[in-house]
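queue> holo job accepted (coproporphyrinogen III)
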Amino acid sequence: MTTDFPVLQNDRLLRAAKGEEVDFVPVWVMRQAGRYLPEFRELRVEHDFFKICRTPELACEITLQPIRRFELDAAIIFSDILVVPQALGMKVEMKPGVGPVFDSPLVNPQHLDRLIIPDVKQELKYVFDAITLTRHKLEGKVPLIGFTGAPWTLMAYMIEGGGSKTQSKAKKWLYQHPEASHKLLKILTDVNVDYLVEQVRAGAQLLQVFESNAEYLGLREFKKFVLPTLIDINKRVKAKLQEEGLEQVPMTVFAKGGHFVLKELGESGYDVVGLDWTIEPQVGRQLAGDKVTLQGNLDPCALYAPADHLEDIVKEMAAKFGNNRWIANLGHGIYPDMDPESVKNFVTFIHKYTKSP
Ligand code: CP3
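queue> job finished
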């Protein structure tokens, strides 16, 4: 498939990410393609979750579903962060009502020998094909975001074997097996660098790194184990894009619950820093500094509010962020029982309260 794509008509997201002026603040919603949409649930009845991820036509269709309904300023490729552990040879299933379940999680450092270092271009080809197909099908309407799970978040899933309230098994590795932890984080960092570069080659126009499990760590462990991997990914991806003659794309880091490290993330080289909903926009700005664009940070549950109440909340949030260097989003993924009408309202209100004079 050619990577000669239709001309982009709405570049608000990319402009905001680079710190350029915009007519409206761009808005998208984490997990915008998913279970709160009846058309997603309909497809999901017929197909296994990872089968959808592995079938470019289905992944593309689901990516486009929210774009058809709402005036969003970006699409995000339908996939999951757990396709990376799968590429390393781990078996993961998505059990309805439960979430991801690993067949044989990593229990001790010897288990690192089980991991197969993948040829990323080959093992994750289905993601790249989905991205290329989606870029064509978007017809330049909005930019397409590629993503990955950050090393610590992936490590935690690979050790816990699924979701966890405490991440204590994964954290135990940091304290009991620091060398093996560094080794695993290095494997995941290396795979992520190739994975993100190939997503750009396939057509991704912005890359987001999800460090969803930042909140479980304290500053000491975060700085020792995690921050270096995030900095490394940004630096190496950009260097490799340059080396390979590919276009530079903005990069976003979203460390959920990582308030304690916002200053460092602001200096990490990423273009955009995501905020969850528990931090005031002005405090986030103060900590992250002026050189980055902020993304966020509406409480996902605010979408349960009646429209007029939601409007007040969005208006207040917009005033706090200001129109520059902001990408509007939720502070985490949308919940499956959300009324799609609320997403429509959210998008409308963001555009309404951020229109440049
Ligand atoms: O619209 C989009 O944002 C793109 C698709 C996307 C999915 N997962 C689809 C999905 C993205 C960007 C992700 C990222 C992801 N996956 C993260 C990081 C973001 C975050 O929420 O912190 C994480 C931690 C995962 C791992 C994961 N995938 C979990 C823990 C779960 C189960 C919990 C849940 O929300 O259901 C998933 C499942 C998942 N990923 C679904 C979707 C649409 C629902 C699966 C289903 O239909 O059964």
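queue> Residues 30-35, 44, 49, 76, 78, 80-82, 94, 96, 99-100, 147, 163, 210, 212, 333 surround coproporphyrinogen III (CB under 6 Å).
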